[in-house]
Amino acid sequence: xxxxxxxxxxxxxxxxxxxxxxxxxxxxxxxxxxxxxxxxxxxxxxxxxxxxxxxxxxxxxxxxxxxxxxxxxxxxxxxxxxxxxxxxxxxxxxxxxxxxxxxxxxxxxxxxxxxxxxxxxxxxxxxxxxxxxxxxxxxxxxxxxxxxxxxxxxxxxxxxxxxxxxxxxxxxxxxxxxxxxxxxxxxxxxxxxxxxxxxxxxxxxxxxxxxxxxxxxxxxxxxxxxxxxxxxxxxxxxxxxxxxxxxxxxxxxxxxxxxxxxxxxxxxxxxxxxxxxxxxxxxxxxxxxxxxxxxxxxxxxxxxxxxxxxxxxxxxxxxxxxxxxxxxxxxxxxxxxxxxxxxxxxxxxxxxxxxxxxxxxxxxxxxxxxxxxxxxxxxxxxxxxxxxxxxxxxxxxxxxxxxxxxxxxxxxxxxxxxxxxxxxx
Amino acid sequence: xxxxxxxxxxxxxxxxxxxxxxxxxxxxxxxxxxxxxxxxxxxxxxxxxxxxxxxxxxxxxxxxxxxxxxxxxxxxxxxxxxxxxxxxxxxxxxxxxxxxxxxxxxxxxxxxxxxxxxxxxxxxxxxxxxxxxxxxxxxxxxxxxxxxxxxxxxxxxxxxxxxxxxxxxxxxxxxx
Lengths: 425, 176
Fold this sequence. Notes:
By secondary structure, chain A is α/β, with parallel strands linked by helices. Helices cover about 30% and strands about 35% of the residues of chain A.
């Protein structure tokens, strides 16, 4: 630890200089006397201090949070020897703000005393929140000298995109074989009543429909529809990115994908994820709460990777992209490669829905407001509308989402075809 | 609380020159300027502005002494010096601690430390004044230019010595 003089020395020296200069100039001894306390302070500031002995420990309340959730940082400082004045600072990474308390503190401790200091952080947007470590500054007497050190204790908090509540969920066209929440046209075990037919040997008595039996005079049973789940594959476009760091179209699309994944998994569906970009990655379709964490983990690291290599979805194995699956693509539709992939999937008979995340609000937020920018945004919006109409003519089902409002409101605009009855899987 | 204390010290700083010669317009103007600059410095917790205010107050004090020509008043001068030390230390600390969490005994410990240093300065000043009285008798017969030269050289050496003391080698942690 190296002690360095602070700016206060210069201030006191200025005062001393003025006092002595004016004393000599005017011949008044009082002015020389004025200089004595500052000189004594300057000399006292050089007083030897005991070696700093402390123990510092930092703890985080959690290492996994959703966007806008709080992380409590607790710092415990124990002084083995006396600490006249110590300053602690935990620098905050970008896109992280204080929710409670302060990341900067001053303490005075006697030997053997311990103090706990807590503050809450809130991360905006999905990210790996990295805390580098505490900066400590020890102040000498009167703040005339300071010595700094850095306690390197890196910590990472995973901030996942927050799934929003959703009511209008696009229904898949085909179901799978496992039990789920979709009423299948196929007859079998279930609670949804279907057709009525005459009793046959092997039918259970509890399925007898007594009203029909009494009316028709012979035993009749009620058949039931099976309840099945579906496979849903979320196709995330990471070819292009528009907007401010932390609020790009990829961030918005990731938030939408998290919302859809949570909603489908809550309905017992199997959800997979394909990140289609410079470096394609995927998560195999699966079900359950632990699978949601796998999907969120993948969404957390989804980012644009530039490459000249043009990959197709053909390299994705069928177990990742099952032919019966509902494919929900989230994309700003800015890159022709993604449009080609979506058109190809639709042409191959995949049940495909494209959620077109508008890049215009993200671009507007990143640019300075001006009348020219307003006109440009309006022109862009018109051009985009023409483009989307062209894609619709090619057979794509596209729902527009501005990324600012809830995804639920955008999906509510879907026609009744997407609230359809499902076909047997 | 710290801002109130800083304002009180600033008022003391401005009042001392006025107490010597309140009616002299240049003194009042300088004191008003010191108050304005110091006020802004206290609001912004700016050490350079408060230093400027302290310098203006010193000039006002010197002007008041020249205009009024009163008998020597060491207690007022000691009070002015101690006030300057306290005000600068307080503004420096408050500027550093702005927006930070303060431990339970930080302000009290700092106040004790500042008062101790200011008190030590006052004691040293009294001792020096006491030691200067017999020296004044010895110098009474000396020629004035010699005395002025010695005083100027002494002032220069004091400032240079303090600068060397602060910035020179050996600034390693004394306790490490």
